[in-house]
């Protein structure tokens, strides 16, 4: 367990130093603390946005410590960081529901907001890809279970879960949360298009992960089809007509 008083003191000292450093133009508190979802084991994850010229020296002068996990980004690199379609898109949720602690230029908060949501011109592709991947994994899961290949069926069933989540969040232009924050996200920011209670969805997903329950998988499939068709993605459903789904 982290000594939270010492951690807070270390953070306050770290921020005071960074705020008065001309090489640093923005500070973002990320991780659980950035979303006000910290635990007794949370340290302070701090993203430092630097001038291009100051990046190397800031990286040296602000090392990681027992209480502070610091990560510097030069501003020119940060502008493209975590954009959809880039290698760093996996980190988009870091910026969802987050605020800049320091924004000397007025640009940092806008970048945070943009990174924390799906770009409007990427939403359709994200939904399309999630639907295709989901139906492919589900088809394999149900076939393998039917054929008595229990392990393969369970593994494929587990692979449907991230695709289910990608779909239901992308449908609303939102970034799928890190697994750690899934229940917190649904509790604090419910999905408007989800036709069941969030707690019921989580219970069904947990059951699929543990058991690969076929009937629950079929129930989720019916829900996904309903949501897709209602929101203009009937073609992605029709693409899988004739495939085995139990």
Give the topology, please:
Elements: H1 4-19, E1 24-30, H2 31-34, E2 44-50, H3 55-61, E3 68-74, H4 75-78, E4 100-103, H5 108-115, H6 123-146, H7 150-170, H8 182-188, H9 198-211, H10 214-230, H11 234-238
Parallel strand pairs: 2-3
Antiparallel strand pairs: 1-2, 1-4
Helix pairs in contact: 6-7, 6-10, 7-9
In words, what does this structure look like?
This protein is of the alpha+beta class and 246 residues long. It has two domains: 4-115, Beta Polymerase, domain 2; 120-238. The protein has helices spanning 4-19, 31-34, 55-61, 75-78, 108-115, 123-146, 150-170, 182-188, 198-211, 214-230, 234-238; strands at 24-30, 44-50, 68-74, 100-103. Helix 3 links the parallel strand 2 and strand 3. Helix 6 (123-146) packs antiparallel against helix 10. The N and C termini lie far apart (48 Å).
Please describe the biggest sheet, giving its number of strands, its sense, and whether it closes into a barrel.
Answer: 4 strands, mixed
**Overall tally of domains:** 2
- Strand share of the residues? 5-15%
Question: Any low-confidence stretches, pLDDT <50, length ≥5?
Answer: none
- Spatial gap, N to C terminus: 48 Å
* Average of per-residue pLDDT values: 95
> What's the shape?
elongated
Question: Radius of gyration, Cα only, in angstroms?
Answer: 21 Å
How many beta-strand elements? 4
Secondary-structure content class: alpha+beta
* Oligomer status: single chain
């Amino acid at each position: 367990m982290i000594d939270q008083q010492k951690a807070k003191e270390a953070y306050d000292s770290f921020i005071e130093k960074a705020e008065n450093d001309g090489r640093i133009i923005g500070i973002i508190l990320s991780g659980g603390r950035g979303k006000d979802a910290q635990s007794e084991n949370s340290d302070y994850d701090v993203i430092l946005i630097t001038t291009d010229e100051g990046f190397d020296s800031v990286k040296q002068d602000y090392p990681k410590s027992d209480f502070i996990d610091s990560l510097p980004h030069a501003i020119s690199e940060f502008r493209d960081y975590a954009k959809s379609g880039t290698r760093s898109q996996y980190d988009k949720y870091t910026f969802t529901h987050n605020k800049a602690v320091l924004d000397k230029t007025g640009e940092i908060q806008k970048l945070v907001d943009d990174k924390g949501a799906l770009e409007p011109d990427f939403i359709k592709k994200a939904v399309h890809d999630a639907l295709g991947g989901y139906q492919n994994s589900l088809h394999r899961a149900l076939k393998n279970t039917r054929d008595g290949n229990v392990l393969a069926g369970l593994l494929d069933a587990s692979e449907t879960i991230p695709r289910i989540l990608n779909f239901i969040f992308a449908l609303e232009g939102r970034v799928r949360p890190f697994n750690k924050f899934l229940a917190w996200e649904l509790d604090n920011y419910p999905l408007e298009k989800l036709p069941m209670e969030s707690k019921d969805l989580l219970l069904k997903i947990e059951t699929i992960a543990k058991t690969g329950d076929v009937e629950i998988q079929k129930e989720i499939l019916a829900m996904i089809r309903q949501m897709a068709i209602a929101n203009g993605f009937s073609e992605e459903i029709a693409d899988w007509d004739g495939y085995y789904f139990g």
